[in-house]
């Protein structure tokens, strides 16, 4: 499994470079993070079937191109490698000395690049720990509990925030995926014009774009399959409401 992840990762890197994309460019197309692309390419995690089908479309290749063939497996055998080395030697000895120098320079550069890639693969991933409160529904609402706190690890240093929470649902796709962490701050806004916020109402919480309208707030999903949610604002005396602006987001490391 580890060797397969490395092979698939090398193909992703190859096709990405052939397409002239950076890791950030590819991450944007897959609606994920640069760090996730890096882990795919290093073989730290294996791209699943859904990701591979998306890559097929992005790179205009076949899904079979991401998997080793019998021929490619055969060429990695010791006998095949020895045969390749012998073939290279047979060619090099026929070259004039100045051309042999060129071959040596190219081989040296290739070796340097290979060693750098090997270091990247084994380089430990720096992680940050942060505390997340309950789960925010990117959907129809989720129970909110101030006492439900757990520590999670994330790939990027969190921005300054008051609380953090985990996204639950798909109504904010493609900007916020299920399982993402969002960092929240009490900004003291009294009027909203489309800011992405966490809205806690009594025992429900939501992650939505928020708009102020006459005597109400409209909570809008990015995913068009969800209807808007309308809540009274200002709220009645017996209604508890708290609104936090999203100041950043990231991926949780499992």
Topology:
Elements: H1 2-18, H2 23-30, H3 34-42, H4 49-59, H5 70-74, H6 78-92, H7 97-122, E1 128-133, E2 135-137, E3 142-143, E4 149-154, E5 163-168, E6 181-185, E7 193-201, E8 204-213, E9 216-220, E10 229-232, E11 241-250, E12 252-253
Parallel strand pairs: 2-5
Antiparallel strand pairs: 1-4, 3-8, 4-12, 5-6, 6-11, 7-8, 7-11, 8-9, 9-10
Helix pairs in contact: 1-3, 2-3
Brief rundown of the structure:
By secondary structure, the protein is an alpha+beta fold. The protein has helices at 2-18, 23-30, 34-42, 49-59, 70-74, 78-92, 97-122, and strands at 128-133, 135-137, 142-143, 149-154, 163-168, 181-185, 193-201, 204-213, 216-220, 229-232, 241-250, 252-253. 36% of the residues lie in helices and 27% in strands.
User: What's the Cα radius of gyration?
Assistant: 25 Å
What class would the helix/strand composition place it in?
Answer: alpha+beta
How is the main sheet built? Answer: 9 strands, mixed
> What would the average pLDDT be, to the nearest integer?
81
Give the uncertain stretches in residue-range form: 121-125
Terminal-residue CA separation? 18 Å
What's the total number of strands? 12
Strand content: 25-35%
The geometry reads as elongated
Number of helices: 7
What is the string of SSEs from the N terminus onward? HHHHHHHEEEEEEEEEEEE
The portion of residues assigned to helices is 25-40%
Label this structure with key terms:
single chain, 254 residues, alpha+beta, 3-stranded antiparallel beta sheet
Commentary on this structure:
The chain is of the alpha+beta class and 254 residues long. It is built from seven helices and twelve strands. Strands 2, 3, 5, 6, 7, 8, 9, 10 and 11 form a nine-stranded mixed β-sheet that branches. The chain has a three-stranded antiparallel β-sheet with strand order 1-4-12, with no helix packed on it. Helix 2 (23-30) crosses helix 3. The longest helix is centred in the middle third of the chain and has 26 residues, at 97-122. The protein is elongated and about 90 Å long. The two termini are 18 Å apart.
């Amino acid at each position: 499994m580890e060797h397969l992840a490395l092979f698939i990762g090398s193909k992703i890197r190859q096709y990405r470079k052939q397409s002239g994309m950076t890791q950030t460019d590819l991450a944007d197309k897959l609606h994920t993070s640069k760090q996730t692309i890096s882990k795919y390419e290093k073989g730290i995690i294996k791209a699943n079937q859904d990701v591979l089908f998306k890559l097929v479309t992005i790179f205009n290749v076949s899904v079979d191109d991401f998997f080793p063939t019998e021929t490619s497996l055969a060429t990695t055998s010791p006998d095949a490698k020895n045969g390749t080395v012998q073939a290279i030697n047979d060619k090099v000895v026929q070259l004039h000395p100045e051309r042999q120098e060129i071959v040596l320079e190219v081989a040296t550069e290739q070796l340097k690049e290979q060693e750098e890639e090997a270091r990247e693969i084994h380089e430990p991933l720096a992680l940050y720990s942060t505390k997340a409160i309950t789960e925010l529904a990117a959907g129809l609402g989720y129970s909110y509990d101030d006492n439900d706190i757990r520590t999670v690890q994330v790939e990027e240093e969190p921005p300054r925030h008051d609380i953090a929470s985990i996204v639950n649902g798909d109504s904010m796709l493609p900007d916020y995926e299920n399982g993402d962490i969002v960092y929240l701050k009490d900004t003291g806004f009294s009027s909203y014009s489309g800011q992405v916020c966490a809205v806690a109402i009594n025992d429900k919480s939501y992650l939505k774009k928020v708009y102020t309208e006459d005597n109400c707030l409209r909570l809008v999903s990015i995913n068009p399959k969800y209807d808007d949610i309308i809540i009274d604002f200002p709220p009645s005396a017996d209604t508890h409401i708290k609104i936090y602006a999203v100041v950043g987001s990231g991926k949780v490391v499992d």
